């Protein structure tokens, strides 16, 4: 049994982060375990050479600077299609029917509709009538969703919870902007969680900074606004995000290890958000751990925001790479700026 963090809600000042970081760590009386996972990936694979066909870029630049070789992009699929595929796989693996689900949490930057929520859109296709809602914690969505799910389970308010992470990044970015559009892809991943003891530690944070990574909304055709904002795309100051990512993930690993009393050697896998292979490598080098403990899927899928981590976990399970008692450190970061990490001892 691992030592767990004490209940704590604290504000921490940091030199690198100009605003307060609100961290929440929890000691779980009833925790959760993942009992089934699934994925939904669009058919169309887009290579770096495909991008070089209409952008001033090339395969060598993209691979060297990011580690990305391909990404998958929706052409005829809706985000609901991908999500339902992922959810059905997760339910099958959990040996459950949709009617066994008592709550659906969907992490997304936005589904096929602004309203209803993506969770409700998927629920309609699954035929469920349980509560369903979306959360937006950007790329950190999966860790936030796990934390919310564990609170529902601990309160006895749900039995089996379906978490879906789903992103159609291709509709959110400017395909003329080589600084951003080369980085992202589309997809969905899902998991079913129930009461268990796998989740040992969670730490979430949010720094109020909307400047270095954001996606503005347009003003529509409101006649009372003089300066209308038309369709806007994802905006990013790449190097600032890079620095934030390396800093926050480094701090989150350190804090998780100190709090749980684990050493890096006792972690079997560091499953980190797949934003840039260089970010992952920099954390690995700092921790002096072997490459095989840092699985990647960014080469194949690019960055799929909240989907990257659960997709990686799902594929590792399918490949038989995760065994009972394996200790996993999971960490993600994204717009907000949000960050979150957790430790799972696989059941
Ligand atoms: N192909 C070719 N050249 C490109 C390019 C592309 N796709 N994108 C940018 N460049 C050029 C730039 O214009 C710049 O040219 P210049 O020196 O003539 O001005 C040069 O490459 C270097 O650009 P820079 O932005 O300094 O590159 P970088 O090494 O910082 O890499 C990112 C850019 C975006 C890959 C990197 O900053 C990054 O990954 N940041 C984190 C992003 C992230 O994690 N986002 C998601 C958060 S959830």
How is this structure best described in words?
The radius of gyration is 19 Å and the shape is globular. The protein is 29% helix and 27% strand. Helix 3 (79-94) crosses helix 4 (118-126). It has helices spanning 48-52, 59-66, 79-94, 118-126, 141-154, 238-260, 277-287, 298-301, 308-318; strands spanning 8-12, 21-25, 31-40, 44-47, 70-73, 103-107, 132-135, 160-168, 186-196, 199-209, 213-214, 235-236, 269-272, 327-334, 336-345. It is built from 9 helices and 15 strands. A hairpin with a 1-residue loop joins strand 14 (327-334) and strand 15 (336-345). The structure holds coenzyme A. Coenzyme A (COA) is lined by residues 57, 61-62, 65-66, 139, 178-179, 182, 213, 236, 238-239, 241-242, 245, 275-276, 303, 334.
Quick structural summary:
This protein has about 350 residues and is α+β, with helices and mostly antiparallel strands.
Which small molecules are bound? coenzyme A
Number of helices: 9
What is the number of strand segments? 15
What composes the largest sheet?
A: 6 strands, mixed
**Structural class given helices, strands, pairing?**
alpha+beta
* Mean pLDDT across all amino acids: 91
């Amino acid at each position: 049994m691992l030592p767990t963090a004490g209940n704590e809600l604290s504000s921490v000042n940091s030199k690198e982060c100009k605003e307060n970081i609100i961290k929440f760590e929890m000691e779980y009386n009833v925790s959760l375990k993942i009992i089934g996972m699934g994925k939904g990936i669009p058919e169309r694979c887009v290579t770096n050479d495909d991008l070089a066909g209409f952008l001033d870029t090339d395969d060598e630049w993209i691979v060297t600077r990011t580690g990305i070789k391909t990404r998958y992009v929706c052409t005829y699929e809706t985000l609901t299609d991908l999500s339902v595929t992922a959810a059905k796989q997760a339910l099958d693996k959990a040996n459950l029917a949709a009617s066994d689900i008592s709550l659906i949490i969907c992490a997304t930057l936005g589904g096929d509709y602004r309203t209803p929520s993506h969770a409700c859109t998927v629920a309609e296709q699954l035929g469920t009538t349980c509560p369903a809602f979306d959360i937006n914690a950007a790329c950190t969505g999966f860790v936030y969703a796990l934390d919310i799910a564990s609170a529902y389970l601990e309160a006895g308010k749900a039995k089996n919870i379906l978490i879906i992470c789903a992103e159609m990044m291709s509709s959110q970015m400017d395909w003329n902007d080589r600084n951003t559009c080369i980085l992202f892809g589309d997809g969905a991943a899902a998991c079913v969680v129930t009461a268990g003891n796998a989740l040992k530690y969670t730490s979430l944070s949010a720094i109020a900074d909307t400047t270095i990574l954001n996606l503005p909304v347009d003003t529509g055709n409101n006649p009372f606004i003089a300066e209308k904002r038309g369709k806007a795309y994802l905006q990013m100051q790449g190097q600032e995000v890079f620095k934030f990512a390396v800093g926050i993930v480094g701090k989150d690993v350190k804090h998780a290890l100190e709090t749980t009393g684990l050493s890096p050697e006792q972690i079997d896998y560091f499953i980190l958000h797949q934003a840039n292979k260089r970010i992952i490598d920099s954390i690995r080098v700092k921790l002096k751990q072997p490459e095989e403990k840092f699985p990647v899927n960014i080469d194949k899928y690019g960055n799929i925001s909240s989907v990257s981590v659960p997709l990686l976990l799902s594929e590792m399970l399918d490949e038989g790479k995760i065994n009972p008692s394996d200790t996993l450190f999971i960490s993600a970061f994204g717009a907000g700026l949000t960050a979150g990490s957790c430790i799972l001892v696989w059941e």
